[in-house]
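Appendix B. One record, verbatim.
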Amino acid sequence: HRYVREGAEVARHAFRVAAGLDSAVLGEPQILGQIKSAVRTADSAGLLGATLQQLFQRSFSVAKAVRSHTEIGSHSVSLAAAAVRVAQHVFGDLSAQRVLFIGAGEMIELMATHFAARKPASMTVANRSPARAQALAERLGAEALPLAGLDRRLHEFDIIISCTASSLPLIGLGAVQRALKARKRRPMLMFDLAVPRDIEAEVEQLPDAFLYTVDDLARRAAEGGERRQAAVQQAEALVDQGVSEFSQWLEQRGSVPLVQALLRQAEHWGDLELQRARRAMARGDSMEQVLAQMACGLSRKLMHGTLAGLHHSSGEAHQAWVQAAQRCFLADGPDLAEATPHHTGTCPVAHGHDTRH
């Protein structure tokens, strides 16, 4: 489905997704890797501007904060991680186990990546397409196996993970019975992640076969969900903070052209007064007189717009000018009520245009 986010909700959505708060399984970390990969691809293609760069970098920072400072970040809850935990529960150390992956899609590759991190004794990939099986096997440092020869070698594997698009089961009850007999009843752990199923459901009735479906893994991945749910409020607070900071950055970025224009104007005024000072010095005016005139000229130019606004405004507009003037020029000085009522400086106060150039 498609939806639209606007304003700060864009940042909120990005931060929640990156932090795993918007996942079907709370705290799912794999989406963050997918986002990072997409950002790298877009960046290498020159498709990310400064705003999107900032948005995604802040997304990564918020995700890191959520995983580091809340209970959500203390548990890996992906289906692949759940499968690894089940395998460790059945076999303990996986370094002596032989793993077979049936299929070559995204889910199988994800599972293979998680199991490879546990350094099993061997990994094998079987797929209907030999080319795809070989490609994935090469990436994993595994062996490729033709799907046609699967039944004859099924007994070799301790852990079998299957996820294909087949409309019929690939592994039947009889094949597993023969494999268990050849294994002398050493257990086999099977994960059937396909819909419809790749492994006949009757296999789970065999005493030495442990069969888990995608629903079984989803339930295990959700274990501890209540405890993580208690941390959602804390995680949402971190998201809120991130949204506020990004919104502030965005507002400041929007004022950059104005800031640049103000700086250019100030530099122009400085140049005008510097030229006037040089002419005065060429006429023989004293240094003290030149500096006083320069300070007076800069002061008049700096204050002219504000003084004109105060002089020509009335009502609510006048109050707005008063408040703006006080914020800009008296933030660290006296309150208006405490200000000296009489002008005592050396530079005259005028409301007209400063035309001296």
